[in-house]
Amino acid sequence: xxxxxxxxxxxxxxxxxxxxxxxxxxxxxxxxxxxxxxxxxxxxxxxxxxxxxxxxxxxxxxxxxxxxxxxxxxxxxxxxxxxxxxxxxxxxxxxxxxxxxxxxxxxxxxxxxxxxxxxxxxxxxxxxxxxxxxxxxxxxxxxxxxxxxxxxxxxxxxxxxxxxxxxxxxxxxxxxxxxxxxxxxxxxxxxxxxxxxxxxxxxxxxxxxxxxxxxxxxxxxxxxxxxxxxxxxxxxxxxxxxxxxxxxxxxxxxxxxxxxxxxxxxxxxxxxxxxxxxxxxxxxxxxxx
Length: 289
Prior knowledge:
Elements: E1 13-15, H1 21-33, H2 38-45, E2 47-52, E3 61-62, E4 69-70, H3 72-83, E5 87-92, H4 98-103, E6 109-110, E7 114-115, H5 118-121, E8 125-126, E9 132-140, E10 158-162, H6 166-174, E11 179-183, H7 186-194, E12 200-204, H8 208-213, E13 217-218, E14 225-230, E15 232-233, H9 238-253, H10 256-269, H11 282-287
Parallel strand pairs: 2-5, 2-6, 10-11, 10-12
Antiparallel strand pairs: 1-5, 3-4, 7-14, 8-15, 9-12, 9-13, 9-14
């Protein structure tokens, strides 16, 4: 959800030090051609460029008062920048264009973790640890009266979802007979269902609060699917990939990820009777179970 006062800049615009697009691309492509890790340049320049789409509250959005980026993913990325000894810069790109923008060298790594699918891994490299675990849920418009998700597998039903999201492929697999309406963001998808233009909403757990406030009804209380969301960066940059993986493992172990998840996400959705799963170190969790 895009909060009041938030504005998405033109794709590729940079907030922070104000690098131009040509400077940005040439720096990244030069390092790639030389087989160097972006980590060396980040440490030298003390700046790290994150690709973001700030239209997904409470994960990433602009604070309505300060107009500064915040949310679960943004706060984790700020900590990642600090661990690198660098200042974070936010390169705003529409969600559907993040991978192509990464490949074009417009930023160092994504700043809003996404589902690590095999198809995406053909184009970018993912960290080997999750930044958060996303449960996906199905909502129905008021008065539709469905009691089982299988009832959506009908040619007369339309499911609204985020274009380019992992939910698109899941919906194709589970509901091949239903119509799918891919929309640019979760706000548009939720509005499409709340106004009766679509019958159901397929969305991540972070958007449960907004869906319920718009009067949509959960078809079932448990998630339809659960997926890793994590950082991606250029293919072949093993050094940076290892650093990000280690950072995420550390922040899972010291409960930073769990505490931020509770602050930005879980505290909102749990009031609607839905339990989310914060990222914790599995070995420590087992030891203290």
